[in-house]
Amino acid sequence: MAQLKLPFGRGHITADIPDGRLAGVLQSRAHSYQAKADQPELVRQALENPIGSPCLRELAAGKNKVVILSSDHTRPVPSKVILPQLVEELRAGNPDAEITVLVATGFHRPTTEAELLDKYGETLYRHSGLRFVIHESGKKEDMVHLGTLPSGGELLINRLAAEADLLVGEGFIEPHFFAGFSGGRKSVLPGVSSRETVLANHCSAFIDSPNARTGILDGNPIHRDMLYAAQQAKLAFICNVVIDADKRVIAAFAGHFDQAHRAGCAFVDQLSGVDAVPAPIVITTNGGYPLDQNLYQSVKGMTAAEATCAPGGVIIMVSACSDGHGGQSFYDTFAHEPDNRKIMDRFLATPSDRTIPDQWEAQILCRVLLQHPVILVTQAPREMVEAMHLHWAADLPAAIALADRLLGKADSPITVIPDGVSVIVRK
Length: 427
Fold this sequence. Notes:
Layout: E1 2-8, E2 11-17, E3 22-25, H1 39-48, H2 56-60, E4 65-71, H3 79-93, E5 98-104, H4 113-120, H5 122-127, E6 131-134, E7 143-148, E8 154-158, H6 159-162, E9 166-172, E10 175-176, E11 180-181, H7 195-201, H8 204-208, H9 221-233, E12 235-243, E13 249-255, H10 259-272, E14 273-275, E15 279-285, H11 295-306, E16 309-318, H12 328-335, H13 340-348, H14 359-371, E17 374-377, H15 382-387, E18 391-393, H16 396-407, E19 414-417, E20 424-426
Parallel strand pairs: 3-19, 4-5, 4-9, 5-6, 9-12, 14-20, 15-16, 15-19, 16-17, 17-18
Antiparallel strand pairs: 1-2, 7-8, 10-11, 12-13
Helix pairs in contact: 1-3, 11-14, 13-14
């Protein structure tokens, strides 16, 4: 019997898979990578050796209004490690600079004060002299026009970012299911962009593109828009990290928003690439908290399973979803229409200027559901899960038993992906 630990919320559950059924385990080598220094030292080394850019303290000289774009509560970015060092560098360049941390919520709900304290800690949040502002994409009065995206959409970003003397991005790099990789330019789009800009960038035609997939940057239309947005916003410097399964920093990349990001993506690609092991049942997760807080985010882990699940096979998604579905529009799309094919046809017929909120996540979930039944092992209410066309299971043994019934046999091979958001599955 193989026993595999799977992240679930802030803890773990154990998957007991009979040896005769275990087809393979797809795991990023980032989870076993031995970092060459401790976390603060890795960040310090990256800041001292920026890629394609002067040091941050040099950039900060004479800059009075400095804005740091910081990922929100849905991302496991170790801000307590990164942000103090960014601030130290900035103040070394200009001790009198006014530094604002703009929390880049993108299209997500606003981060609560409790979540800010959890993310940044009491000292950084309350006693560092930093001003924290939460971006809200729906506040039109907060936005500034910066041109037209390559896709044709209007580029509107938060005024604080647009009017900064120096704009800096903090984040992390991992495989991303339609932007190729997270990090870098994503701090601006969708990070601090308007609702209208995000909707244009996440349109159905782009989501449907074969290049809008995990691990792909070149030829990716979503990435192309994001690069343009970062250039127009004058994102001057980034510090992005790579983390392991315990959310600890194993590498850091700092400097030019594209060059440093590309270097980080190459590192992640080398560690995260795994060959598909096709099987009729695939078990995946969203890497635990914070990425498995809701069903919306959990679609990411499903796409890793999608890439290795045999035709007609069953996906088992292990995700706590303590925050529910994660988006009313996302939920309503499925709750109000029982036919997945009709949902997909409606998406594909929707022009970019008519994109609705959360359409992209719903489109990808619909794509998965058109190919595979999905069983959700979760804390979320059964009624909610089933309203969204997924099967509900209270625990993993029940999910495997249900998968066996759906397949009509009890001995089908099982592939396990302990962290579905950390791998790039190569077919």
